[in-house]
Structures are given as C-alpha cells and as structure tokens.
Task: structure prediction
Amino acid sequence: MLTRLKQDLTMADAARTHGGARVDLVVVAEMVAPGAKVLDVGCGDGELLRLLAETRGVDGRGIELSREGVNECVAKGLAVIQGDADTDLSDYPDDAFDYVILSQTLQATRHPRVVLEHMLRIGRHAVVSFPNFGHWGIRLQLLLGGHMPRTDNLPYAWWDSPNIHFCTIKDFRQLCHVVGAKMEKAVAFNAWGRALRLNAPWWFWNLLGEQAVFLLSRRE
Amino acid sequence: MVEADFSVASDAADRAREADIPHSLVVRFGMDRPLRLDAGIDLAPFQIAYQTYGTLNAERSNAVLVCHALTGDQHVANLHPVTQKAGWWETMVGPGRPIDTQRYFVISPNVVGGCMGTTGPASTNPATGMPWGLDFPVITIRDMVRAQAMLLDHLGIASLFSIAGGSMGGMQVLQWCASYPRRVFSALPLATSTRHSAQNIAFHEVGRQAVMADPEWRQGRYFAEGSNPRRGLAVARMGAHITYLSDAALHRKFGRRFQDRDNPTFSFDADFQVESYLRHQGISFVERFDANSYLYLTRAMDYFDLAADCGGVLAQAFKDTPTRFCVVSFTSDWLFPTSDSRAIVHALNAGGARVSFAEIVTDKGHDAFLLDEPELLAIVRGFLEGAAKARGLPPARG
Result:
C-alpha cells in the first residue's frame, strides 16, 4: 500500500529538483546531519535511503510494509527489512539511531501518535513529512465540490485509499505538543516544490503549504 | 511389486572409499591439532574435504564460505563425483552468478559428521581400522563451524567477505557470526532458524527411527557386517522430502495423477505419481548418503539453539556485531517458517546490526532456497554487490 502511494507520488508530477530527486525527499535529506545513523520507516523503493547515502553519507536502514518494495531495496544493496510501522517499531531499542524518518507515511499508519512516540524513543531526532490536508485546494474541494478531496499527490477514491489519518500542519503541531516533541525545524512547500517564506505565520503555511516536513527532537 | 525396490547401483564400499579418499581437496589435521568437540572429546586425527571456485585475491579479502544443508555436500558448482549430477547450487554459485566466482573465492567444505570426505561415522576410525559407526562422537553445529575455522586458518584466510547457506547451512552461518563475529564481513542465512523447533526435532526422530528399524542397520555396524540399511534411510528421506516441499507444490507437480496407468491397480504398488516420485527420491539418496551420517547430522540440527548458548537471550549472540546480514525466508516454507527468520531479524535489530530481511513469495516450500528463484538470486546479488562496495572489492573480472 505504502509503495503504491509512493509510486503514485513519483508518477504524479511530483516536483523534482534539477538532479531528478523529489523535492520533499531533498528537504528531508537536508535535515539529516552527514554521516548519521538513520532509520527510514516506510522506505518504499529506497529512493530516500539512496539519496541519503549519496548526498549525506549516512548509515541508513529501512522498514517497508510491501514485499515488492523490500525486495527491490535489498537487491539495490540497501539494508531494509519487511515490517510494519504500527507494530514493529517496538522491537527497536532506545537511542538506536540518530534520526528516524517517516516520509509520506504518517497518514497511512493506524496509530500516528504511537508511531511518533516510538520514533522519538528510537532516534534522537525524528523527521516527518506529510501532505497538508489544510491546503486551500483541498479545503476548496470539500467546501465547493462537497466530496472528499483528490489531488495529484492523493489520487485515491475515499473507499480505496491507504491514507486513514490525514492531518493539517496545525493538527500535526498539536500532536507534537501532545507527545512532548520539540520542533527544531519546519518547512512547508507549495505544489511547485517552492519553500514558503520561513517567517510566514503558521496559518499561512497551513493554507498554502501542500506538503510539510518537520524536524523534531525529544523535549529534555 | 508391493514394497519399493531400494537396491542401488553403487555399493557401500564405494561410499566408504569416498569418505576416506574423496574426489575433493583434503586438509588433514594430525594428533597435534585436534578438533575440540562440544561433547568434551578431542577428535584427532581428522580431515576436511572441500572444494574451491575462483581465485583468492592478493589481499585475501574476497573469500566466501558456502555451507551446505543436511544432505548436501561440498560439490556446490561442479559435477558430483558419485551421482554425476550438477552441483547443488549452480543457480547461485559460478561465473556471472550472484556468488560470482569471477569476483569471489568460494570455499565449500563438507561438514564434520558428513560422508563425502570430511571425518564422520563412515570414515575409518584410526584406532580400529574400521568405520567409526556409532563410536563416532556426537557433533554439533558449533563443532562444524570450529572445524571450518581451522580450515580457514589453514588457507590463511583471516576474515571472510561473506558466508552463505540455507537450512542447516544457515545454522552454520548464524553460528559463525556468533562465534567469530570479527571474521565475517557479511552473512546470508537463508530459510533457517536459530533453533530447531519441536516439530522439526519430531520429524528428525521419525527419520532416525526409520533407519534404526531397518534390520540391516545392525546397530550402526553395517559396513563391517556387509549390510546396508537402504530401506530405512530411503524411508527417512521420503518423509523428510515431504517437509521440504509444500502442499501446493505437491499438488501442482503431481495432483492425484496416476503413474503410467489409467486406473488404480487395487494394490499397494506406486499407483500415484507422488508415490513414484518419493520412492525415486529415496533410492537416489541412498546411493550417495551414509545412514549413520544422517543420524549424526540430524542430531546436530536438533541440538542447535543459539540463544541457549547466551543465557536464553538471542540478541546477546549478536551484540555489537560488525557483520552485515541478509536474512531470507519463503512464504510456503513450513519447516523454517518466516517467523523463525523474523526472530533472527528482531535479535539483530536489538543488537544494532545492519540487517536486510526479505520474504519471497513462492509455493516451493523449504527447498526454494536451492531452486531457480529469480527474486532470491536478485537479492543475493544486490546484497553482495553492496557489501563488496563497502569492502572495497573491485568489480568482476572479464
């Protein structure tokens, strides 16, 4: 399911940099310190892990739900295991990684809060990227169209979607507050992959950001 | 014919010869270099028969140890000297194969307790001049691995680039990583487990009892008494072979089809194709394998429990391991199910190891690791290429 989502994200005209990498992945990668030990939860076909290895020299591991995704990753030489973010993160010891990344996967988990808590336990930092359900285009579809929103990034009919826990940037900040995570950095960008002005107020990001990436750490 | 005909072409004398003077490279360890067994006995003198493929590089950094399963042997990728059949892992090992012999130096030893030239119950006991038989000490997976480490010392290989094996071979891989973590750069335990389950011990016990129930077994002294428990061993093999397949694979291959006939014969002849197939498996196995070896090796697998060696905590076996792992299981393998592989992965994760894990969809059961499974081959190739890059090995020649 997650792989399917990722493929759709890739297939859709997801914004890409000149190098060909997806903008959201580049933004995630830029939040990771070079040489760090990283766990990518829901790593799909391994595009982010590969980007991290090539551009940041990280020691990367991955978990992926779909067999096809895992086997593709392992055949590429990536250290990836078949597993479920909702059930298998509890297997990892505390502080096993510098960063635990959840890229475009939060909305597909059954228990986002538990997943985020595990991420902050396993890693010193957590990086979460997700589609912002508060984007004006989505609001407009619901307000004027009267149906569940569908976009290039979220192309599913409501009955066929792997995404069961959508949230807005505002909602996610609330979750961070609830689990006691410290927001170290946040980036929102629009449909064309352009980052929104850093000093813009949150409500502005929540309205105009199509996607968001947060760098979190434990509040000591 | 009511009973299956298990008479075979090669006689016991041929096999006894292969056990002492094999068609393989052999290293002999004298009285001064005993193999210290878990049973508390020093085995000396003893020998290891092995095959090699490819060339060891100047840095001695490209060696891959291939460990065989219960009824396998060292003939991984060459014509088998007894059966004249292809090597058992030619899909995996060879020039241009995932374990590429143009790039890696592959070593495959016969295990201690085996019957293809490494010292085992069919070998001559120097104290009596007769085959060891049941006087041979009970051996363990750890003993096999200890002997292999002596072989590597002999070959001057301090550390392995990789080690691969399925089933009992996978047990040796895991034991290597636990016993000599600094000597293993990467490891491929396939379709295996860190401990033999009660069900697996039970199947092995049925096999052993089949051998021992054969009057020709003669308390293990069949060589000396000129007999051969071929019926017992064949029945053991038939039973075990079912556990290597799956219900779906048997149905796909044979269904309820009759063998060379259109109607049942109302007898206990091999009416069904599946019966005929199993009898054939039994016969061809007896030709190349020693009954006592079968007892010793199944016992070694039964005793295997890696966690028990570490106070019951499996993660301790792999704590701070520097080895990169690639664990593979198969959906229809009910002998070493995916849950066994998951337990390995869990322990490795807890120990902070760099581990990959893939489960491959197939109906071919436990034997899938031996077969031409494109996904398995791609995974092993990719994993080894990644490891070779990390180890700084140059690409394949030619």
Summary: The CA atoms of residues 117 and 161 of chain B lie 26 Å apart.
